[in-house]
Amino acid sequence: MVGKKDYPINIKPIHWERLKAYWSKLETKRKVEQMSNAKSKMKNMDNVGQLGKVGKEVRLVFVD
Q1: CA–CA gap between residue 9 and residue 16 (Å, rounded)
Q2: How far apart (Å, rounded) are the C-alpha atoms in residues 57 and 64?
Q3: 8-state DSSP, 43
Q4: In angstroms, rounded to a whole number, what is the distance separating the alpha carbons of residues 36 and 40?
Q5: Which residues contact 22 (CB under 8 A, 6 or more apart)?
């Protein structure tokens, strides 16, 4: 990199300033914290869904 810039290479300076303003808002920080707490309480149920054990068994059922 030639010269030190305050914004990433592929982002225009005006867009970078808008992103910084958005992420520095108190409301945005609260939303991020709330979503982070909610995500940490989620459990991965690997035995259900299309990729789980139940999903594999359902695909094996043939209907005449």
Answers
A1: 10
A2: 17
A3: -
A4: 6
A5: 28
